[in-house]
Amino acid sequence: MQKTVAIICGGGPAPGINTVISTVAKTFLADGYRVLGVHRGYEGLFKDESDYIEFDFEHADRIFSRGGSTLRMSRFKPKDSDFSPAFFVKHNVALLVTVGGDDTASTANRLSKYLKEHDVDIVNVHVPKTIDNDLPLPDRNPTFGFHSAKDEGVRIGNTIYEDARTTGSWFVLSVMGRSAGHLAFGIGTSCHLPMIIIPEMFNKTKPTFQKILDLIISSMVKRRIHGFDYGVSIVSEGVFHILDDEEIKKSGVRFTYDAHGHPELGNVSKAHIFNILLQERLRELDLEIRSRPVELGYELRCCRPIGFDLTLCTLLGYGVKKVYQQGMSGCIVSANSNGDIVPLFLDDLQGEDGKIPPRLVDIDSEISKLGFQNLHYIKPKDYEAAKAYVANPEQFDLEKILEWD
After folding, report:
1. Other CB atoms within 10 A of residue 225 CB
2. Which of 23, 173, 332, 365 has the fewest Cβ atoms surrounding its Cβ within 10 A?
3. Where are the CATH 3.40.50.460 domain residues in the chain?
4. Could you tell me where the beta strands, DSSP code E, fall in 176-300?
């Protein structure tokens, strides 16, 4: 019976998924394999009637540069009791290619063990994906999709900044990134935005809404001192996720809560919340500055991949075949800075607690230090001029707020 390669995608979209799928399909079709793409990740894999695409060269060739994913995606995480060997036996699957995050990869490891116990032997190769760029790959190499998402964010960020300049107003721009501020920092520095706020900045002090708002106001006042009545402050959504639940509750914003009593942050626009609280704080200070919220998240996930990710994802697709031919299973395909395929395993990335620690923005790196130094915020030399707008300018000094001095 003809051997089959099955491909599934878990989690959320990232630019370059179709490039990986296309490359894997083309390379294995050329060697006489049957290639199936299963919709809805693990959920689709274990349905009684799995919904899948059988690839031919034309389909694979048509999608390689498209955004989104030709395979429907799902965050479904199966329990061991959900597993079944039926699909693998029926289609004579020799290789399962999983595209997703660490949950998708760890589930594939569990599934491989289950199948082996049921006398079904398959190879699994995982291609890691996240536009957050927070997976600790060797050489701090970027995760696929990050640069394309950043590029799209820069295009939107520049447009928003031009709107601010044209209308003499401010925007609060919130950008996705649950644990790390790579997207916000990359977009903010590329667009020369006057204020960037990411979770890594709070390395010496506990984050609060007031500190976040005062950082934004610091930039507003600094710009006023120099005669500019406009600007954009970019805030990583990760800042929201490191706030204490009590801090969130006392903000006065109404949330829905999960079964554990935690605010369901995914249901709300962080930009909207920050902007409402900012307007209240500006009224307290008797500052008449208009600001508007912009949420930037879903706009980035399905954009067309740029050349960098087209090249990287093609290489990763070739890498799937390379490690398969080398007899490796349960591995993660990565590429180093020389363009060499480097197989990794979950154990290579996991900490002592068994979880993969997120790769954060290195705020001690030169690019970070220079980026933060060139933001617009009140410094001691501005105190006297700032008194025309706020009574206590030292309260709005970024280095004092973050306890960096």
Report:
1. 17
2. 365
3. 149-301+375-401
4. 195-197, 231-236, 291-296
Tens of pLDDT, residues 174-199 = 999 888 999 999 999 999 999 999 99
CATH number among 3.30.230.10, 3.30.1330.10, 3.40.50.460, 3.40.50.300, domain 149-301+375-401: 3.40.50.460
Using DSSP's 3-state secondary structure scheme, residue 126 falls into strand
The two tokens of residue 230 are: 């406009």
Q: Residue with structure tokens 């020389």?
A: 338
Q: How crowded is residue 278: how many other Cβ atoms within 10 Å of its Cβ?
A: 23
**Please, which residues bridge with residue 61 across strands?**
none
Beta bridge partners of 236: 175
CA dist., res. 56 & res. 35, Å (int): 8
Q: What are the residue ranges in the chain where pLDDT is below 70?
A: 258, 260-263, 265
- Please report the sign of the dihedral spanned by the C-alpha atoms of residue 387, residue 391, residue 397, residue 403: positive
Fold of 4-145+305-349: Rossmann fold (3.40.50)
What 3-state class would DSSP assign to 170?
A: strand
Annotated catalytic sites, by residue?
A: 132
The dihedral formed by the CA atoms of 260, 265, 266 and 269, expressed in degrees to the nearest 10: 160
Tens-place pLDDT, residues 25-70: 999 999 999 999 999 999 999 988 889 999 999 999 999 999 999 9
Single out the residue of 128, 134, 58, 78 nearest to residue 99, CA to CA: 128
Residues contacting residue 284 through CB under 8 Å, at least 6 positions apart:
none
Whole-model pTM?
0.93
All residues at 6 or more sequence positions from 254 whose CB lies less than 8 Å from its CB, including other chains: none
